[in-house]
Amino acid sequence: MFRVNLNRAEVNSSDNAPAGYRTAAARLARELASAELSLNLFEIPPGESLCPYHYEYVEEWLLVLEGSATVRVPEGEEQIDTGDLVRFPPGPEGAHKVMNRGGAPVRLIMFSSAHEPSVAVYPDSEKVGVWTGDADDRWMFHRSDGNVGYWEGET
After folding, report:
1. Which CATH class is domain 12-115?
2. Could you state, in order of their start, the residue ranges of all structural domains in the chain?
């Protein structure tokens, strides 16, 4: 049996994220030795976002553990609160961006299948990302100009 306690899981901040995207994460799937799921605990400080507006070709799920967040979806923006469970369908209709516009941190879990390589599309910046499962083997392409950095064109 593998076990993680969500109340005691240590979240670590990303050092290379720009302002507006500074979140902390615990990679729970790694700790639980999962081969079937991508499972991450995130803590989003006030004024920050989890990641740029994007969609993938697998379902993504979000469970709010603590706090309230704003989610941008194709139809507009919606508030989600503690206890809300959300499913983002595969493809463009599942596009989303999670933002903390409140005054307290938001803790949430995101999970999906762990099939790789995986593809994410970033409509605002016209990028496509490809992940192979190796942290050093991530590819970002601008749809018309070739390779670009992950944060290029994001606001």
Report:
1. mainly beta
2. 12-115
Partnered with residue 44 across adjacent β-strands are: 106
Q: Which two tokens stand for residue 25?
A: 């994460």
- How crowded is residue 136: how many other Cβ atoms within 10 Å of its Cβ? 5
| Closest by CA position to 155, among listed 120, 132, 130, 122 | 122
User: pLDDT digits over 97-126, tens only?
Assistant: 999 999 999 999 999 986 777 889 999 988
Report the C-alpha gap between 11 and 23 in whole angstroms. Answer: 9
58-98 pLDDT, tens digit per residue, is 999 999 999 999 999 999 999 999 999 999 999 999 999 99
9 close to 38: Cβ distance less than 8 angstroms: no
pLDDT at res. 36: 86
d(CA 142, CA 126): 6
Q: How is residue 119 written in tokens? A: 């593809």
Residue 35 sits at φ, ψ, to 5 deg, of -105, -10
Element containing residue 12 per DSSP (H, E): strand 12-13
* 3-class SS of residue 20: coil
Confidence of residue 56 (pLDDT cuts 50, 70, 90): very high
